[in-house]
């Protein structure tokens, strides 16, 4: 399938560590090259991966036919509600028109007792964000040099619709009990457990 290290694949571990014990189904939202879907499939028997880019999905399908590849928009595609034990999205929600609506949709797809994990991008604002960005810049240089940097097929976005603080505010208002974390490599994570 190709791929390698970058800021998104670096955070696969956050998703994989959140997979509930006994998970049978997973959804990878905005799968792109399908690397997270492939990692999930190594742990979860049934993985669905959705993305708008049919050409990228066709390439992924050739290398991992054991994943259900779906060309479509997660906001409107008729995915079965409350049916995925793990719903994951890496660097996708900032492409969607309304963050709150996107998080509600992903929560609706999460099975009772399941887990939703969003790894996202946002704009920095304030000294704490800027300090984290400095740490991230150093971490990027070290890891890119030691692991080699791979550019994924998704469009590169340089300006994001929300700051980290705004994302945190929207997420806590939308997903009661969500756990928020800011990561150095220009990412945040939201982890939410659906009520059993």
Automatic annotation (TrEMBL):
Keywords: Methyltransferase, Transferase. One of its GO terms (biological process) is methylation. This is Methyltransferase domain-containing protein. It holds the Pfam family Methyltransf_11. One of its GO terms (molecular function) is S-adenosylmethionine-dependent methyltransferase activity. InterPro entries: Methyltransf_11 (IPR013216), SAM-dependent_MTases_sf (IPR029063). CDD domains: AdoMet_MTases (cd02440). Residues 27-118 form the Methyltransferase type domain. It comes from Jiangella alba.
